[in-house]
Amino acid sequence: MEMVRLKCGFENGIEVGAVGSKGGLSLGWKDGRGRSASWDLLRQLSHDQTTPWVMSGDFNEITNSFEKKGGRHRSERKMNEFRTTLEDCSVNDLGFIRRWFTWERERFLASNIRERLDRGVATLNWMNLLLSYQLEHLGHSFSDHCPIILERKNCVYFEDRLNYLYSQEPSDEILAEITDVQLNLNWEADKEELFWEQRARINWLKNGDRNTSYFHNVADQRQFRGRITKLEDENGRKLSSTEEILRLASDYFVNLFSASSMGSDEHLFGLVEKKVTESMNAALLK
Predict the structure, then answer these.
(1) Is 124 helix (H, G, I), strand (E, B) or coil?
(2) Picking from 126-135, 153-162, 205-214, 277-286, which range would have the lowest pLDDT averaged per residue?
(3) Given its phi and psi angles, is residue 169 left (phi above 0), alpha (psi -120 to 50 degrees) or beta?
(4) Number of neighbours of residue 24 by Cβ within 10 angstroms
(5) What's the CATH fold of domain 33-152?
(6) What residue ranges do the domains of the chain occupy?
(7) Which domain of life is it from (predicted)?
(8) What is the pLDDT of residue 72?
(9) What pTM was computed for the model?
(10) DSSP 8-state secondary structure symbol assigned to residue 142
(11) Which pLDDT band, with edges at 50, 70 and 90, does 235 fall under?
């Protein structure tokens, strides 16, 4: 159906393939000015290069032929126009995780077409402002497009920064920044915990006051989440039996709260700057 539409001179269109004895349907149109107008609008919005900005959603276009599988090859001219628009706007692709294609049509192998029509792009100053982010392609529902979600990953950034600071030589500045990063990391964890508490509270207000399966499911999930089924010892060996888990936990806390022998403090004395000279020390010893 797509080939017939293109031979008739309609570059844009939607097709429903024939199934058995049922005929197919094709809708085609020639007007391509709408897309050009969209690219021009993006260029106008990008004039202020000092403001960090990000765009995500259905661009209805791909940048390269490998972003499409099945059907006829995409027009190189259209892909080039889209690439040029992104370059003129000084935006970069944010990448993604999970599935590659975001749009799919037809479930039969012979007529199946998949493309990456949805994406996220942002300016460099936006990417530098939010160092840890993640764009995820979610599963399809009733739409032929899969939802995409762009999330900030502040915890990942703070954890990476903390690991880096721990690897540096200690100084007043390093120790101060470690304290600041630890506070930010705790704050992010508190925000996430508060979010889930509020969400759980809403669900409970809706369903928890009834003697329904929701109440029993919540109770079962709480019991399951609090259960320890496996522990790993210091040698990397995984223990799953109740006796082994109890013994490992007991040994851990015994060692934790037992007094350990103090090592030599000579390496600490080497860090202290000497203020008393040999002659001053000799005078004091008289």
Answers:
(1) helix
(2) 205-214
(3) beta
(4) 12
(5) Deoxyribonuclease I; Chain A (3.60.10)
(6) 1-31, 33-152, 154-209, 213-253
(7) Eukaryota
(8) 82
(9) 0.47
(10) S
(11) confident
E-assigned strand segments in the chain: 12-16, 25-29, 54-58, 68-69, 91-93, 97-98, 103-105, 113-115, 118-123, 133-137, 148-152, 231-232, 238-239
The mean of the pLDDT values for the chain is: 77
Query: Do the beta carbons of residue 64 and residue 158 sit within 8 Å?
Result: no
How far apart CA 102 and CA 94 sit, in angstroms, is 15
Distance CA 18, CA 24 (A): 4
Q: Which residues contact 48 (CB under 8 A, 6 or more apart)?
A: none
Q: What are residue 38's phi and psi, to 5 degrees?
A: -65, -40
Residue 50, token pair as written in the block: 């000092």
> pLDDT-derived band of residue 252, with 50, 70 and 90 as boundaries?
confident
Question: Taking a C-beta distance cutoff of 8 angstroms, is the pair 21, 68 a contact?
Answer: no
* Gap between the Cα atoms of 50 and 93, Å rounded: 19
Full strand arrangement of the beta sheet holding 97-98: 97-98, 133-137, 148-152
Give per-residue pLDDT as tens, 68-96. Answer: 988 888 889 889 999 999 999 989 998 88
Count the neighbouring beta carbons within 10 Å of the beta carbon of residue 146.
19
Residue pair 10/28 in contact by the 8 Å Cβ criterion? yes
What is the 3-state secondary structure of 50-118? Answer: CCCCEEEEECCCCCCHHHEECCCCCCHHHHHHHHHHHHHCCEEECCCEECCCCEEECCCCCCCEEECCE
